[in-house]
Amino acid sequence: MPKGEGKVVSQNKKANHDYFIEETFEAGLVLQGTEIKSIRAGKVNLKDSFAKIERGEVFLHNMHVSPYEQGNRYNHDPLRTRKLLLHRKQISKLIGATKEEGYSLVPIKLYLKNGFAKVLIGIGKGKKKYDKREDLKKKDAKREIDRAFRDRQKQF
Predict the structure, then answer these.
(1) Which domain range does residue 55 map to?
(2) What is the per-residue burial (b if ≥16 Cβ within 10 Å, else e) of 4-26?
(3) What percent of the residues of the chain are helix, what percent strand, and what percent coil, each to the nearest 5?
(4) Is the residue at 112 inside a domain?
(5) Mean pLDDT across the stretch 75-93?
(6) What's 113's domain CATH number?
(7) Are the C-beta atoms of residues 123 and 94 closer than 8 Å to each other?
(8) 149 phi and psi, to 5 degrees?
């Protein structure tokens, strides 16, 4: 199964808008109690989340997992820091990449693969304002071209 394949639960749409994603890694998540039930229900948000390397381990900050409705006292803190599971070589590669100026670890999407929650994190270089404008122009041009092709095919 290629990277990022499975039932996509949540995507960080701002990641591609704000960063040039250069390389991606698939990481497992250390979850507590009813968190997996909330994730399976799709009650998760990656919008303002980021990954950080602390003491040789990778942690995911600000990922919001809503409390499970039937969880009563076993529920968790929605914004708690969660540990990511990666191989030692991958972590050392991430450490080397984030030491460079302008690079950060960005969660791209959260998905379920073989019953386990996985996060696709990428090494991202921040975009400048003019880069974002350029991307929007390219996206609009592509949309116009696709629309023209569709209209042309309807004529025949």
Answers:
(1) 8-127
(2) eebeebbbbeebbeebeeeebbb
(3) 35, 35, 30
(4) yes
(5) 89
(6) 2.40.280.10
(7) yes
(8) -60, -40
Residue 94 in tokens: 């991430």
* Poorest-pLDDT segment among 67-71, 93-97, 112-116: 67-71
Q: How confident is the model at residue 17 (pLDDT cuts 50, 70, 90)?
A: confident
- Taking the CA atoms of residue 58, residue 125, residue 7 and residue 65 in that order, the dihedral angle to the nearest 10 degrees is 50
Which residues contact residue 13 at a Cβ distance below 8 angstroms, ignoring those fewer than 6 apart?
none
| Domain total in the chain | 1
Residue 94 placed within a domain: yes
Question: Where do we find the tokens 């990511």?
Answer: 84
- Count, residues in the chain: 156
- What are the residue ranges of helices labelled H in 32-87? 35-40
Residue 28 clears pLDDT 90, i.e. is over it: yes
